[in-house]
Write a structure and sequence with these properties.
The protein is an alpha/beta fold. It has 2 domains: 18-71 and 381-429, Urease, subunit C, domain 1 (Roll); 74-365, Metal-dependent hydrolases (TIM Barrel, Alpha-Beta Barrel), CATH 3.20.20.140. The protein has helices at residues 95-106, 112-128, 144-156, 172-175, 179-188, 213-222, 238-246, 264-273, 281-287, 294-299, 318-339, 351-365, 400-407, 434-452, 454-460, and strands spanning 18-26, 34-43, 46-51, 61-64, 69-72, 74-79, 131-138, 160-165, 196-201, 226-230, 255-258, 276-279, 304-306, 383-386, 413-418, 421-425, 428-429. The strands form 2 sheets. Strands 1, 2, 3, 4, 5, 14, 15, 16 and 17 form a 9-stranded mixed beta sheet that branches. Helix 2 (112-128) packs across helix 14 and helix 7 packs parallel to helix 8. It is globular. The mean pLDDT is 96. The structure holds zinc ion.
């Protein structure tokens, strides 16, 4: 294990009281209060006090937040953590190429240890970026041994996680009723606290027989939520939403990932159910589920959270998710206005809203809004300090929300506290064995490359491009 003291020789042991001093506190409370030169005291894993020059226990670790922003830990509501060992492999993929590789060809090659390696690396990566809660949209669980490996990895890293159990190698109405699945749930989840939650993860393809109903019934039986990829062009559309809605399979805990290509009727149904949408803008922009949906969801007042989807293509930090989402939302507003021959004068979306989606929005989506998602007295202490005295980008901080969304990046995350424990300080991970994660990842990569075969491994990451035609340019210079 790595450092348990920081550069000043201060102990970073878990359970120690912590006081952040003199920072800009972006509380994300109901009033969205932003406090200047403020302190935050954490005792016994709980936010105990927020204010100016507050008293702290003698043994509390003091973290100087001068020049920094203290914000709630970010919450990612949809990440396929098991795929992280293949970071960047599909950077040039379309969604069709992803399906072929994982669903049809090679996803079944993953062994439990490969799920472990991906989950471990993803869990560490999340914490490093200030993502204190991640929903592990774990659809590579071919057996409960795979599922055990996924949970082992999530338990090896002291972050907050939700295992969203899925299996792309079998139909949801098959794996969810398998006694082994129920045994796994009882053994590893029943009665667990809020550091490790559970939900079911599967897609509804829109077939009139609606066989997925069986999996919804299992979720209802266990009293756990469902998360589903919805509004994915050509895959899950309005029929899927209608079937779920008319069969009583939607509620306020249902998370609809993407929700891009849907009709007004479907958005109304989602809104009426009280469910929320998880927007993965980087994903929607390049994979092709549909235009990133935040601009549309806002029109129907559907609650929004953010997610990154998978590192097979994209980045895994919510700074990028916030920035791309604000960009795509505004881009759409301009496009729509230009189509009417109008110019946008006032934007619809503020950076403040994007920070809300990355924090409170996520907490609401996963049913933990009373515990995390804001910096308020009594809440669990999932707190992030963005501060980087070596960076020319960290001053001046004039607009804290604008700074978080448009200026800061994961390298500026100085300190991460989860449930009161320090997991990153002075921009270095604390008590996390990165070397072990690297070692396991390398093993998985070489195993996968071997099992796929060298030619197919190289070909898989270099998909064919579509043919494009350069238009004849009438202004070409001719001598
Ligand atoms: Zn996904």
């Amino acid at each position: 294990m790595s450092n348990s003291v920081n550069s000043k020789g201060e102990s970073l042991e878990h359970g120690r009281s912590i006081v952040f001093r003199n920072g800009i506190v972006v509380t994300m409370d109901n009033l969205h209060r932003v406090l200047k030169n403020a302190d935050v005291l954490i005792v016994d894993g709980v936010i105990k006090e927020i204010g100016t020059k507050i008293a702290a226990p003698d043994d509390a670790l003091t973290i100087d937040a001068t020049g920094g922003i203290i914000m709630p830990g970010m919450i990612d509501t949809h990440r396929h953590m098991w795929q992280t060992a293949m970071r960047g492999y599909g950077a040039d993929w379309s969604l069709a190429q992803y399906y072929v590789w994982y669903y049809l060809q090679h996803g079944k090659n993953f062994r439990p240890e490969d799920i472990y390696a991906g989950n471990l690396l993803s869990a560490i990566e999340a914490i490093d970026a200030g993502v204190t809660t991640s929903v592990d949209w774990s659809h590579g669980l071919q057996t409960t041994q795979h599922a055990d490996a996924a949970v082992d990895a999530l338990e090896a890293v002291p972050g907050r996680f939700i295992l969203a159990y899925g299996n792309i190698q079998a139909a949801p109405w098959e794996w969810s009723v398998d006694p082994a699945f129920k045994e796994f749930y009882k053994r590893r989840f029943d009665g667990k606290g809020d550091m490790l939650g559970f939900s079911l993860a599967f897609d509804v393809l829109g077939d009139a027989a609606f066989l997925e109903k069986a999996a919804f019934d299992v979720a209802k039986d266990l009293g756990v939520p469902v998360t589903t990829h919805a509004g994915v062009f050509g895959i899950t559309g309005d029929e899927s939403i209608r079937l779920m809605h008319e069969n009583g399979c939607m509620n306020e805990h249902t998370v609809f990932v993407h929700s891009s290509t849907l009709s007004e009727d479907s958005y109304h149904r989602i809104a009426a159910s009280g469910g929320s949408a998880s927007v993965s803008t980087e994903s929607e922009q390049s994979a092709g589920q549909g235009y990133p949906s935040s601009w549309r969801l806002r029109q129907f007042d559907i609650p929004i959270s953010l997610s990154h989807d998978t590192t097979v293509w994209w980045s895994a930090d919510l700074f990028t998710a916030m920035r791309t989402t604000v960009g795509s939302d505004r881009s759409r507003q301009h496009m729509e206005a230009h189509a009417r021959g109008e110019q946008v004068v006032n934007l619809d979306l503020r950076c403040e809203e994007a920070v809300h989606w990355a924090t409170r929005g996520g907490a609401k989506a996963i049913g933990l809004e009373d515990k995390v998602g804001s910096i308020e007295v009594g809440k669990r202490a999932d707190v992030v300090l963005i501060k980087n005295d070596d960076s020319p980008v960290m001053f001046p901080i004039i607009s804290p929300y604008g700074h978080i969304v448009m200026q800061a990046q994961r390298g500026d995350v100085d300190t991460v506290v989860i449930d009161g424990n320090i997991l990153k300080n002075e921009r270095k991970l604390v008590g996390i064995d990165l070397a072990a994660a690297r070692n396991l990842t390398e093993k998985t990569v070489s195993y996968l490359a071997d099992s796929v075969g060298e030619a197919a491994w190289v070909e898989g990451q270099n998909p064919e491009l579509s043919a494009h035609v350069i238009a004849e340019n009438p202004y070409k210079y001719v001598k």
